[in-house]
């Protein structure tokens, strides 16, 4: 289902139970449209994610780690100034709309009590976060500034008077007693029609929610009881992630009555972490790594064109002997070639004296025409070695660039700095940074996972990490894993004699962090690190080996996440 008014209702109740009366200890803005409030409540620190991302807007507690920029944004500094140390008094919802209000009690610079409200609007591309002083009703700041040219109804800029988003006129709050649903059931017996009417009558009812209620009402003999049971599910949720038969994944507050694969979560927030983490991370990575993606795409396009031309040249070299044969036949029958001829038919003594037609230049004599064919022959023969060499070089570059492309797809936004550094070191990307104020990129540590039996598993997320993990961090008797013949991460089991279960778990991780993530029966090689070799002059992360064992696994994201070291 979408993050509609009903999902917002359930989430607000969950957040109130967990966070109400908590104190804000830290504030971060890891990405342009997202704010993270670290709230200390019930002797525990919670990271409250407020997202105005147009694709993934939401509010939730998150356990996904975020890497903050070296320099905080102006918006983050403003939020810290006004909200750090503030008490979260309450979390409320505007009717059944997708607007959440976080009410804070704090003090101003003079120590006087101050009441602030952070409005979280979860409305796709219109999503926003606005901090408002309730005494003056003036906006302190918004995460996305909206001028009068962009929106004539409301101005969302610092200092402007805060105006609520337009209400859903003439629509009912479904959590306030009403009989509209009963009237609609009597009037409409078609599910599609009933669904449409429910959406037009009730606030915040998304398509999936309306469809779910329409089915329940049409199958019921007691509409009032069914409607109350429906509302009950949003006050007592069963967070469920469903993998549909068509390959799509959906999240719901309730456990849908279908036979598709389902995973239930303890809270709505953990449900959203499970649903959004990969999607939002890929989106952020693409935003951060936009330049890198464009550079690699252009380089690969050139290489693919070059390979096509080289293969065509190689195909042409197969005709080299034809030029030699024609040259030798012309040399043998020079006496038959007359000045001004443009072609001649002679006996081919290489083919049982069958007639062969040979083109001639009327500007050359017989000997010169023969020499022209010998020159073409020699040129093509000399080209073979050069073309083979260039094909090998270009194919290696394609393999390398495709591995980088795959790493960007699997990377977190923080990993892109290391990928950019690698491309600069390899000469694919210019370093345009100020030489005097050059910031040194410190390689991040490999990701850590813990096998079921407690064994540590390390994973490199890019070539520089892979190189350091394999040849600097790992011991020579540790077990190294990598998908067979496919770009992917280096994985190290920190054990010289791991169990079969641990090897399978590490192989699943290796397959998951590879280009074969969405495939089944992925071959994964494993062997001791001491059998790996690093050929001189090869790109970072490139290794050769022999004596490996290969096993087949099917990547499973849930298993990988379960093993992630907290």
Notes on the protein architecture:
It is a single chain. A six-stranded antiparallel sheet has the order 15-16-18-17-19-20, sandwiched between helices. It has a five-stranded antiparallel sheet with strand order 5-6-7-8-9. Helix content is 38%, strand content 21%. The mean pLDDT is 89. It is of the alpha+beta class. A hairpin with a 2-residue loop joins β1 and β2. The radius of gyration is 34 Å and the shape is elongated.
Identify the notable features of this structure and list them briefly.
566 residues; alpha+beta; 6-stranded antiparallel sheet; 5-stranded antiparallel sheet; 14 helices; 20 strands; 21% strand; elongated
Question: What topology, given as strand order, has the largest sheet?
Answer: 15-16-18-17-19-20
Distance between the termini: 29 Å
Total strands: the figure is 20
Determine the mean pLDDT: 89
Query: What does the largest sheet look like?
Result: 6 strands, antiparallel
By helix and strand content, what is the structural category?
Answer: alpha+beta
Shape: elongated
Count helical runs.
14
Helix amount: 25-40%
Nearest-angstrom radius of gyration?
34 Å
Give the DSSP E fraction (strand runs of 2 or more residues): 15-25%
């Amino acid at each position: 289902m979408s993050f509609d008014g009903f999902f917002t209702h359930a989430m607000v109740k969950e957040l109130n139970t967990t966070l109400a009366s908590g104190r804000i200890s830290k504030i971060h803005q890891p990405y342009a449209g997202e704010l993270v409030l670290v709230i200390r409540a019930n002797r525990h620190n919670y990271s409250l994610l407020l997202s105005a991302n147009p694709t993934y807007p939401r509010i939730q507690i998150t356990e996904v780690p975020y890497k903050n920029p070296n320099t905080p944004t102006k918006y983050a500094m403003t939020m810290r100034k006004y909200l750090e140390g503030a008490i979260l008094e309450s979390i409320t919802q505007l009717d059944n709309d997708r607007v959440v209000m976080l009410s804070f009690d704090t003090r101003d610079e003079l120590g006087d009590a101050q009441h602030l409200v952070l409005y979280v609007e979860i409305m796709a591309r219109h999503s926003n976060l606005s901090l408002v002083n309730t005494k003056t009703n003036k906006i302190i700041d918004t995460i996305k500034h909206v001028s009068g040219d962009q929106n004539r109804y409301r101005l969302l800029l610092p200092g402007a008077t805060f105006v609520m988003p337009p209400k859903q006129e003439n629509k009912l709050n479904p959590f306030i007693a009403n009989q509209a649903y009963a009237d609609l059931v009597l009037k409409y017996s078609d599910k599609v029609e009933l669904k449409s009417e429910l959406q037009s009558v009730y606030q915040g009812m998304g398509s999936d929610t309306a469809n779910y209620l329409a089915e329940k009402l049409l199958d019921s003999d007691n509409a009032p009881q069914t409607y109350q049971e429906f509302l009950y599910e949003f006050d007592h949720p069963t967070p469920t992630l469903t993998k549909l038969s068509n390959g799509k994944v959906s999240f719901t507050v309730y456990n849908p009555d279908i036979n598709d694969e389902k995973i239930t979560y303890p809270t709505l927030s953990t449900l959203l972490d499970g649903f959004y983490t990969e999607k939002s991370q890929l989106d952020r990575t693409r935003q951060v790594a936009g330049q890198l993606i464009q550079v690699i795409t252009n380089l690969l396009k050139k290489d693919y064109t070059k390979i096509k031309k080289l293969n065509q040249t190689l195909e042409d070299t197969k005709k080299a002997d034809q030029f030699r044969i024609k040259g030798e036949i012309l040399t043998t029958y020079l006496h038959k070639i007359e000045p001004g001829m443009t072609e001649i038919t002679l006996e081919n003594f290489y083919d049982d004296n069958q007639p062969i037609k040979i083109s001639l230049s009327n500007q050359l004599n017989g000997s010169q025409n023969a020499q022209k064919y010998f020159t073409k022959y020699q040129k093509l023969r000399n080209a073979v070695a050069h073309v083979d060499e260039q094909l090998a070089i270009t194919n290696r570059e394609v393999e390398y660039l495709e591995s980088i492309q795959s790493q960007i797809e699997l990377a977190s936004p923080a990993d892109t700095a290391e990928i950019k550094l690698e491309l600069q070191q390899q000469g694919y990307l210019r370093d345009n940074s100020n030489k005097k104020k050059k910031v040194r990129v410190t390689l991040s540590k490999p990701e850590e996972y813990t096998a079921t039996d407690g064994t540590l598993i390390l994973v490199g997320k890019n070539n520089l990490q892979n190189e350091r993990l394999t040849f600097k961090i790992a011991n020579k008797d540790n077990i190294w894993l990598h998908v067979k013949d496919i770009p992917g991460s280096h994985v190290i089991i920190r054990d010289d004699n791991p169990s079969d279960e641990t090897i399978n778990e590490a192989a699943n991780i290796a397959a998951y962090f590879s280009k074969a993530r969405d495939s089944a029966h992925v071959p994964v090689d494993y062997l001791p690190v001491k059998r790996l070799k690093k050929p001189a002059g090869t790109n970072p992360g490139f290794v050769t080996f022999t004596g490996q064992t290969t096993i087949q696994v099917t990547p499973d994201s849930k298993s990988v996440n379960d093993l992630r070291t907290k």
